[in-house]
Fold these 4 entries.
Entry 1:
Amino acid sequence: MKIFLRIGPLLGLCLLVACGSEDRQQAYFDRGLELLEEGDPVKARLEFKNVLQIDPKHPQAWFQLAQIEAGQQNWSAAFGGYNKAVELKPDYADAHLKRGQLLFDAGQLQDALADAEAVLALAPKDPDALALRGAVRAKEGDLDAATLDAQAALEVDPSHRNALLLLAEVRRAENATEEAVKLLERAVEAHPDDVQLRLSLAAGYQLVGDPSKAREQLETLTRIEPSQLVHTARLAAFLTQQGDQQAAEQALRGAIAANPDEVQPKLLLVEWTVKEKGAEAGLGILDGFVAEAPDEYDLRFALAELAASLGQRDKVEAVYRAIIERDGTGTAGLKARNRLAALRFAQQQTDEALVLLGEVLEEDARDVDALTLRAAIALTREKPDEAIPDLRDALQNDPESTRALRLLARAHEMRDEITLAQDALQKAIDVAPAEPAAYLEMAQILVRSGDMAGASRILEGFLEKVPDDTQVQSALAKLQLSQQDWEAMAQTAESILKRRPDHPLGYYLKGLVLQREGQLSESVDVLKVAIEKRSDAVEPMLALARSYLLLGQVEDAEASITAYLSQHPANAAALNLLGEIYASSGRFDEAAAQFAQVISLYPKTPSAYTRMADLSVRTGDLDKAVSTLRTGINETDRNAFLVFRLGIALQDAGRYDEAIAAYEEVLKSNPEADAVANNLAMLLANARKDDPVSLSRAMDLVQGFAGSEQWVLLDTLGWVQFRNGDAEGALSTLEKAVSQLESVPAEMQFHLGMVYASLGRDDEAKAMLTAAVDSGSTFPGLDEARATLGALSSRAATAG
């Protein structure tokens, strides 16, 4: 008996194991389905993952996991699950349909169509697949084909939800609105709890002029999903639009009564009140809510924000102090300290701010807000070495903090670690690709390094994602202006005028383009429209003054600027332009005094130094231009753009060694600056043409120009190739550059002529060199062009 008692359990265990993995995975799968029916997707997910641990190629488990992710709006994970299910089971119709719908929602119409067609190949009358194919066809503008698909689906299932919605949308697109409404009514009757259908029906009722029925649908939604505040907000907005403020307020208060312990309904009422009755009224309501629920800290923080919007600093501080007193070092108390520290920082009371931040970090050394703000304070004190450790700690705790990443970039830039600064900003862009701040800061770094083209590419990349952002459009337009890219600016102007005809930026840019094209009177008219749309905008006012100046209406130009300065006496741009007006009319002493005033007001700003230097160049005093730029460089902590301009001024003065040193300084911290590399390479090729080391350095500088479409860069590359003995390569490069131009500049004619001469193509060489010399232009190599032309003539005479 003992033997049998010992063998029995072992035999039972073996039988249990023998029942094997298939039975266990089926048990897990069935249990997952049961949990889904019970409304517990979290536990169901674990059961389906158990299935996949046993059999990673179980398509149904992948499908169910995808369904759970879709239910939680984790669309990427859901797509991955459906995709895996289809991969494992190519005839899995449900997975095809779900994946196809996600693809359709993402705008990948052809891929969505492929999924629909895959199902229809298996089941030609599948209504879900027909509706999906019809939706794709409707999106592509083929309404007739979409109608046929919807009708075919309805023949199979007269109450098919997607087919009815599709057919209604087609009818609405065909302006058969009443028929669309009838279809939606039919769909709602068949699917009474479907939120999207009722929203579509409400919109339809509005289109046919029946607001009472639209209201009825919106009210029904608040009953179907009473916890979804979006329905209440939508109803309140509709009632407000209809002029029934009382009913809108009642709807909002009804949501509060239905959810008395929830904060959001109360904040929704406050937001509506602020919008409809003013901030003071909203503040009164919020005060009441705080009194009723003193431990609901979200209400107190909202109260502080609203008081701040009204400029009530004492009240803001009192609210934060009350939170700190009530919550101590709890979560809300620490948050209040951070907010109060930010307030102190804004008031330039940084020592008090640091005390508050110290209290936070003593309690929680990982607090991201406190670390980030302490770093920001360090940067205002020009202490990047103190800021960087705090920012690294903050990013370790929150790698996606764009504020910390942008501050880290600023800290690295302060230490001349430009590559590290760009890396930090790129991470910020990757984290928040639709936020403009990091793009603008990246563009600023590139501009300061002289890489205007790179800055433009960064801003254009943002506008591909968010085309209506006027701040970035304006920055791009300024870059296009600095690069003299008038065709691109014209396109930018038209795009803004089309999208935002109410915004002054489009008119301003169009005015600049007209100004460039010599249509000065037209530019004046357009710029006046920009000023009408925003009277305090300085750029259109400055552009208008320039148009007056170009028209010879100096008095009008000066009057417009002095009028603006009477209202904004310290505006640097206007002060600079007044200096330009003085210079244009030959009043050089007044111009110099004007630029000196700007420098005294804004000693850290590069623009006035460049204008003063340009004025000195214009009056023939190159030494003073160099001196002015050196002063500006020292005052601005060696601003890269001013160092670049110094290089140009030194080159113009024939001080080539100093110019080379200036260019090399810029490139050391900004190796991607093509404009600087271009100037340096050309200078080396001309001034040190007999020095192999210098020519090798020039060749290194221009290697990246080979794929460029800018003729200036190609001309430099070709000339450097020629100086390095590669005449054939130079010819190919220069001919590519010439093909981009209608009129070839004299310097490029000289370069091409020299290449032709070295290749023995004397007639072409003489033609090019003669054109260069006879152009009247002064360019580096003019004497060499004359000498070569003389040698060619002598050679021709000897040969004759």
Entry 2:
Amino acid sequence: MNVKVLRRTPAPRPAIAAEAMAWTLLYVLGIWYADVFVVGPSQITLFWPAAGIAFALVVSRGLGWAAITSIAVLISHATFAQVPVAFVPFSVMSNLLGSLAGAYVVRAGRVQGADTAIGAFVITGGAVAMAAVSAGVGAVGLYVADMVPPSALPGAYAKWALGDLLGIACIAPTLLLLTQGRSAHADAPPTEHYARGVEKTAWAAAFAAAYGFVYWVGLQNSGYALGMVAVPLALLLWSALRFQPLWTAAGAMVSVFVIATLLGLGLAAFQPPQSLLDVLLLLGFLNLFATVPLLLAGSINDQRVAARRALRQMAESALQQQAELERLVTERTQQLDEANRQLEHASQTDALTGLRNRRYVARQLPLDLAFYGREAGNAHTPPHALFFALVDIDHFKAINDTRGHKAGDEVLQQFAGLLTGLIRSSDYAVRWGGEEFLLVLRPMPAEHVATLGERICRTIATHPFVLSDGSVISISCSVGFAEQAFEAGESALSWENLVELADASLYWVKQNGRNGWAVLRPQAGHNLAGLARDARQGAQALIASGSARVNSHRDDVGAHPRADALV
């Protein structure tokens, strides 16, 4: 049962008017029931159902709706509830001020719903406040209208307050549940968490049979017939344990109505209370009868809500932990990938010069050769050749021997930087080993090799190599080229074959004075694959056998393209 006033879309005025009329009629019926059916020979009203209706109305719909109580009281006094005229204003004010006081206490408590134990206690507090205020105003009215003597005012106040309290405990919980619907609590248990329909049907049948049994015992003129209400009380405890709070609230309401009717009308052996003490004891018993099952139902519903909240929080915590774990895994995976990339880069990079190493060549060159081979088949691709160049520093051992290995390392670092600046961004330089470097040059016109060879040799020879001790030295280099033309009918060589051809060309340069370049090409009637097969014989042997020719720095390079054509 939710007693929280929820924000809702304002209803159309005709709908509000119809609802107001329904509440007014219900309130009048509550007064009529108390006036007609629960008034015994002693003219003692056992309980006031209208108090519960007013309490539920103002709590659920707002303080402004308290005006309906005044209208309903005036209608009742004008039609069937005859009282002295002097008492009418006090009757109106007792209902109006009492309902406002009770609703104020409930709203100040800010409870989410009376289907919880704390909600039931707060509603009980509101009921006490309403009963106290209403009984106070009503008792004053009884005295002013000469309806009771001054000596009877304490008893009248007590009966009025307990009657209102019973009316609220009996009626208000059921009406609040019906008007507010299912609990708005985020962790309210769904319907399937309660007993099924078969058990509820059996309970309803047992509940009806229990009051039939109570009435039958009363027909036996037993003085202990009222004690048999323990049977329906046990059934109310059953409903509190197994069913939604609405079942317990409705069962308690029916119980109070049945017992009050039996006693008020003196049916069977049930006699209305005669003395003030009997009235107070009976009303106290009925208030406990109506309240205890609701408190139990609220407490059990709290446990259900707490269990669902715990499960929800555990699920949310698990999801958060899973998300955090996934984040950490993703972060660690990214770190591992980055570490692997760095490791892979380090494993393919020469530590001294920062150039690529043989490991990189073994992985990358097969891919490059396959790519260039596919591109050569494209009709729009010009007939270019892929070049490998092995570059060796002349007399490098002398530098290490005379100046030390530190000086040799500095020369190698500067030499690597010069080579990188001489090739295109799509080409790459590799430290092949020691003072030997490999250049992989993407396809270009075959005649450009002479320009590039001259450019490399001239740049190295004219560059001053400044050492850390301040001294400056000059060096030269030798360059051996190998080419793969990708022409029709020309079989593609492996990168290992091309390196061997470049090495043969380099060896020829070294044998012929160093500080120059050379490229080994097949003679007419021979092919590149044959040269690669016989490259280990050396360039000079291949030339002598007539299977190869050498183009080198000794040739006339005046007709070659300018050096900047390669940039």
Entry 3:
Amino acid sequence: MNVVPDTSVVIDGRVSDHVEAGDFAGATIYVPEAVVGELESQANEGRDSGWDGLTELQALADLADDGEIDLEYVGQRPDADEIDDAGEGEIDAIIRDTAAEHGATLFTSDIVQSEVATAKGITVEYVEPIVEETAVETLTIEQFLDETTMSLHLKTGVPPMAKRGELGEMHYEEIRDEPSTEAQLKEWAQEIENSARASPDGFIELSEPGMTIVQFRDMRIAIASPPFADGHEITAVRPIVKTELDDYEFADELRERLTDHQRGVLISGAPGAGKSTFAQAVAEFLADADFAVKTMEKPRDLQVGPNITQYTELGDEMAKTADSLLMVRPDYTIYDEVRKTDDFEVFADMRLAGVGMIGVVHATRAIDSLQRLVGRVELGMIPQVVDTVVYIEEGRVEKVYDVTTEVKVPEGLMEEDLARPVIMIRDFETGQPEYEIYTFNRQVVTVPIGEDSEGGGQDSGVDRIAKQEVEREIRSVAHGHVEVDLKGPNTAVVWVEDDDISQVIGKGGGRISDIENRLGIDIDVRTLSEKPGGASGGTGSGGGGDSGGGQPGQIVTPEVTSRHVIVPMEGHAGETVEVQADGEYLFTATVSRGGEIQVSRGSAIAEELEQAIDRGKTIQVIPS
């Protein structure tokens, strides 16, 4: 009897079982090199199936040595592309061809393989696949959990650690003196995976070489192994608080706001502050209020009722999930973990399509979550995308913002012709404005007003922006040192070198008048020699080697093209930054979605930047 086993029965150990049971006694077992290659690939990726299969091949070799069977390895070893396409049937096709070539019986527990081989006239022996009924009611790792444990951290060679305490007052602490061993970690990981597969309360969220994420009851469990991690590690996270919207401040007002019409809401806060717990409470409230509610999560770990369907990435893209959701027509979608540019774009697209959107965002201040939209969404569209910001701190609603657009003169500016669209961020409780976001001289600025303007000092809020813009304008025509002092909301004194004063003022005061009209600020131009105490070497917002207050910056190498000077800022999309040359302020800009700043050649800013490059100055970018 000739037998060709496929990968499925080799992994299950069924070939040696049949030999020992006498079913294949004296048979010639032809093992395709395609099976060996697939098993080796799986073992190299750290997958148990690969190791199980290699163990079975060794068992067949031992049976051959004992004379129970004849064992031969046949065929060509598959190339990398064929192994990568195993899921598309490439390896299965090679195995069927091997069986046909040797006139052998194809032995398989793969029903698709069996049906295809039968259709091709190949003799097939099919056995039911082994289903491991290893689900357990209680995982072994649950011995480390108590009612105050939010997360459990297990790693080879390290004593078990846990985050325990009340929401907002968590402590990372050692919970056992004895370090975990590699054997323990592997045993616990296998138990977790098997239980997730066998239990209706669990599923495998992600399975990649070196990382598996499991959802089992209310626990999200991440299992890491080499080479992805430097050691075997298990991290289990679970909610320790189940809340309702009534448990939070502003519950009545938020209920009315959410049910009035579909909203765009960002729930923000630091890690562990209780953002997801609040999002769950909002989701449950909306579902009970007769809204169709879905979620978008990767991984799925929100603890919501069965009437709320939880979606994850479709084809590794949340954009495809969004397309599918639009067909389902939810009233509200909870988007857990809006972090990357793609996430914000998907959030914005769904909101502008009329779906109520509630996004969970990491931010250390309430305003920071809204600023993350700048550069990712057209400025004028932000209030249509997000009209409410809820900031969570230590499990409570610390701040709620109402976001609207008004056409007005920004706070601190005076000229009527400076009116423009301004995004107003108001305290939801008092109605008092706390921030304004608008474009100032082609740059997007976020200006605190009222009590949040850091005391109204000269170096805060709109004063700081105004000082930078005045200095930028003057430096575009002056060649020497420039300093700026703001004397009021619409008045400034500019100090320049003696040789530059006529150039700055211009014929008949024409040049300085143009600058005043552009900025809406009255400017008094004086020489540095007139300044009490003499030149200070750069007390203005950017004129001097100490500009930036010692903040850490990034040294960059701009690229000069035929039309632009391009400053590379990969990884900083949407951030507002200052560009300096040898510590001297040049201009403020917002990094584009493509991770760069483009300055049109021929502009005053570009000429200044090109001069600095030509003179070999160090170009540095500092967070604004």
Entry 4:
Amino acid sequence: MSFPHLLEPLDLGFTQLKNRVLMGSMHTGLEEEKGGFEKLAAFYQERAKGGVGLIVTGGIAPNLRGRLAPHACQLSFPWQVAKHKIVTDAVHEADGKICMQILHAGRYGYHPFSQAPSKIKSPITPFTPSAMSSRQVKNTIKDYATSAALAKKAGYDGVEVMGSEGYLINQFICSRTNKREDEWGGTFDNRVRFPIDIVKAIRAKVGADFIIIFRLSMLDLVDNGSSWNEVVSLAKSLEQVGVSIINTGIGWHEARVPTIATSVPRGAFAWVTERLKQEVTVPLIATNRINTPEIGEQIIASGQADMVSMARPFLADAEFVNKAAAGESELINTCIGCNQACLDHTFALKRATCLVNPRACYETELNFTPAATKKRIAVMGAGPAGMAFSIYAAMRGHHVVVFEAKSEVGGQFNLARKIPGKEEFNETIRYFTEQMKRHHVELRLNTRLDASVVRDEAFDEVVIAAGVVPRHLELPGFDNPKVVTYQQVLSGEVNVGERVALIGAGGIGFDMAHYLGERESSTLQPDKWFKQWGIDKTYAERGGLTEPELLAPERQIYLLQRKTSKMGKGLGKTTGWIHRSVLKHHQVQMLTGVNYDHFDEQGLHIKVGDDSRVLDVDNVILCAGQESNRTLVDEMKATGLPVHLIGGVDVAAELDAKRAIRQGAELAIAL
């Protein structure tokens, strides 16, 4: 498929972008590491070489109080310019363009020096901000302009002013967080004076030949957010004061509506960008859950936007645009929206990377150079760990033979992709399969590896990536055929009834509850998804919210855990709340502190505290973790060859594709 609209240049008058693809802002954590700007330069340079039209950096604070965290990056002084020039030089060497995002955290600042329009604490940070004085507001506007001027001096092609996602500018715009009674609060005109004056001050400092992107919150998704008329009015004012492009911002960070997780339908929010496109002439960028060139092409070709922003897809694949231009979209390593190695890392103050691409943000450290000695390597298991290792090892020149007992590759991903909202896992299987073909990995399906094969075919090393098997519980009645494992259910080996109890409330238990509660995935039905989360496309109310539509439960589901701690505590930092909300939507009964006694014709006998009860269920599904599948380990070690364990066979505490794929990459480099 060709992508003529996606790859068409965009003329901004004083400069031209080579295509309509923006690499959206992401904080990587490299900004604060020692030597991080050299690593950041390599990271951005690869994306520039990969063909992206314009890059936007992670948020850089315009002053000390605007930092996201105490040691976060800022650009306020001339002596800070040199390290930024390392990045811009690297991007320009690759014929790319790059803008620096200026972000003032406001009340989202994770430090005691945070400031905001009003003294109102954020629900997602422990610190209460101080209210800015009128003088501090004016000084902050100057700080934005100074930061932009220094960015120009550092070689950036422009700046993006972060005016969405609930950060400082958004906090001024909305009466929800702006309770001021001076010239910066009260009326709408007063509240938007702050962003307008920032853009005016920046344009005055940088001149006409400098890109200014304003990231406008077009859909706040919080109570008492902006109305649609206010969004339009601000957009028109920004156009008049000289912004080059308006980028779409969706949802505040405190919003209780998912906006970028894998369960969000692809391109779900392009409609709001399209709506604004009828009101302004400045180029608009659509964003959020755009992860394939096909989606990007559709959005631009249909007139919904002039550009598309993709952030995490460029973690997943630096060559995204080049592959699309070459008509090889099947070779793109697609972002699955999992958040596990990017946003979850960022919020844990760790370096961001990517579950499906462990090289992301490790471009100077994780490279697959040709091996000095080419080896013949046997791999048992074609799950994520085995496939990742085989590809990276083959890239280094090794001859790799993969043995898979089942009739298809994918391992646990073949189960995961059946969970509503996790359909993207299909893309990773597709990508790995294509890469195995391209790198001439020999794949033997329906074939188990045994010691005789290893000896007869003269392998040099053995890699076991045969994954995990579900953990069984030795309790009375648990040998009943009505007690089954999650693998049996997801594989279609067994059918379960309308009343089920799930033992184990980790990630597998939550996934199974979702799978059983939602027979048809709302992720594949956007209108149903909007209703489920209370998103009003008519924009009748402020913030674009309405009451979520509750559906009658499709099954009676009990989710049980032994621990007395909060259910789902171990889920992803940025997605756990979504999973809990989905289960509440499906009216799943969640019980903690459960002791299991036995199962019989009456049902599952349990005890919660001092209360004994019987759950009248048709089936019990075991989701209580898994154990390493080590049946081959001793046999392989007896061959005398080096044997390596990766993925679940190495550590099976919880299914962890991020660790499995990274282990495969690191082992490929080591051999």
